[in-house]
Amino acid sequence: MARLEAESVTCWIAPRDVVPGADWGESIIDAIESSRIMILIFSRNADASPQIKREVERAVNKGVYIIPFRVDDIPPTKSLEYFISTSQWMDAFSPPLERHLDNLEKTVKAVLKSPPLPAANVPAQPEKPSIPQPPIRPSRCKPIVIAIAITALVIVGGAGWYLVQKKKGPPEKAAMTPIGSSTPVPITPAAVTPFPTPVPILTTPSPPAPTPFPTLTTTTPPPLGANMINDDEVRDFVTSHFRAEERGDIEYMLSQYIDSFKWGPERSDKASHRNELSEFFKRWPVVAFTVGDIRVEHSAVPDRVTAYFDYRYLYRNPTSDQSTSGRISQEWGISKTSGALKIVSSKSTVHRDSPAPSITPARGPWLFPDSSTRFLSAAELSSLNADDLWRARNEIFARNGYKFSKPRGIAFARTLGDYYRGVDGNQDRVFNSMNQYEKANVKLIQSIESGR
């Protein structure tokens, strides 16, 4: 709206411009009747809104030009599809949004420059020589209505409306204007001509002869545009995979691969790999990962990238007190052919750790001063009471600079004296910064606490 107003196109929004005390529904109908264009901001909320369906139906019935501007990649419901299926859609759900707003602005300005439609209430023009004129399409002469279903704009169950006007003044009721005869031309939904079509020929002020207006076409990105991949979503995709593996979420992990993916030398399918993962988590109930920098390499195909990264792993079985750790160099081929990222190929090189050297444990008022340098065992933890388990877990967070905010944590921090310095109140971020021993020990203590 601000972009159109910056181009001297006056805008009207129902929550802002409906006169206090005025009838809400009547104000919207008046706005639709006096409009030339309706821009439907098509989202999930709009698709589910009964108000939007009624308002679009009224716009079609009044012969208003409709431009569906999609911000969510979803099909419309059948009731809404009935009214907008003939219109050319502008897809705006792929970044950057500015490019789509530029296209929308150009489209609106071009349509506003086209001749007013016969149903519009246009000022009388001085007589001019009789010159053959091209047929005039039905429309309205004043504003553009923009329908949008965003929660912040919905008032008393109604959808928010934007109205863009070419001239000041309250909306006027549209009058039927004769064309070459005294018979009024009825306005029907068929009068809303879909994009792309040539915009009607414009007439210059002098001489009053028609001049061809450039063909107005949408610049909606091709289907691949919706599947453009940016680096940040790849990094989030990779990180979420290892967070899911830490919590043992097998279904989420499998959902990140294409259905035809094959695992390992045995070329296991998805069903077989599900069983393999289930056995893996039985053997290693505690797993922890630290993912390093993720480098994204783009290919000539916009919906395909390769992600390169290293990560450290720790697998541990508290019952048997067995563990293994190491570093893996990973290469993932990632595609976005269906609007969602999927792993299509995977290559890895494993570097297992040698036995860890002896490290001097931390000093201070700690229950387990070495819980940052060795794996605690279930046997030594199971004998602790609930308070000691809480302390054993939180002293690991304290050594990593976690800033306690609850009374119990603040009181505990005071007992640590100069050995404690709280700098970060985000528990997840502090946990992710821990080393492999600390992560494993925190998870083991949590599993014992939850089992009591």
Would you give an account of this structure?
- The structure is a single chain.
- By secondary structure, the protein is of the alpha/beta class.
- The chain has helices at 2-6, 14-17, 24-33, 44-48, 50-61, 78-84, 97-113, 231-246, 250-255, 270-283, 378-382, 386-399, 407-416, 427-432, 436-450, and strands at residues 10-13, 37-42, 65-70, 90-91, 144-148, 160-165, 202-203, 210-211, 286-298, 304-317, 322-335, 342-352.
- Helix content is 32%, strand content 19%.
- The protein contains 15 helices and twelve strands.
- 28% of the residues are buried.
Brief write-up:
The protein is of the alpha/beta class. It has helices at 2-6, 14-17, 24-33, 44-48, 50-61, 78-84, 97-113, 231-246, 250-255, 270-283, 378-382, 386-399, 407-416, 427-432, 436-450, and strands spanning 10-13, 37-42, 65-70, 90-91, 144-148, 160-165, 202-203, 210-211, 286-298, 304-317, 322-335, 342-352.
